[in-house]
Amino acid sequence: YYVTRANVGSPSAPGQLVYSTDYGVTWATAAITGIGTANAPAGVDVAGNRLFVWAPGGTSIFYATLGDLTGAPGAWAAVTGVGAYNDAWVKSSRDIWFCGANGIIHRTRDIGVAPALVDSGAGAVALNRIHGAKSTIVAVGASGMVRASQNGGVTWTTYPIDVGGVISTAFVGVWVWSANRWYVLGTDNTLYATENGGLSWYAVSLPTATAAF
To answer: Is the pTM of this model over 0.85?
Structure first.
């Protein structure tokens, strides 16, 4: 499954879901009902038997139930009144996390129910990506922001990355391998790693430019 961006030109057209149910031999498209042309879909994920799509700047999550035998999406529904999300992490079908503009971290236990605010300690700093492993959740964003919880979202802490000075680049990727080992990608084309849960970091320069992971 992947999504296409909206065409805001003439003629305008909303983004679409593109999917294959035969390992890429053939492909089909599905209109995302209700998303419109103003909110280009930027992310897609699956929680259990529900596929969901979000769009930065939008205030809705669009979701459809996947066919048990076909894997094709059924009718679309929307959850409104949510935040402007940039990324999602599906811990399980009943535990889904979002991060986005204004430093928000939200959580829902049912993709059909609007996520609730869990943390806003990043302030006005936009959070770009979120990932986790078991009870550890890490969100990263602009201005060197790393915001993490190591107790399942009960409490949150900001972890500055200091590698010969505090790093203030924007972060566009994060991967949590374990409670102690995290990897963060910066727009300075450097991978930052910690092996002690954010207490200290080291840098790895990448041979080619990497947009995100």
So the answer is: yes
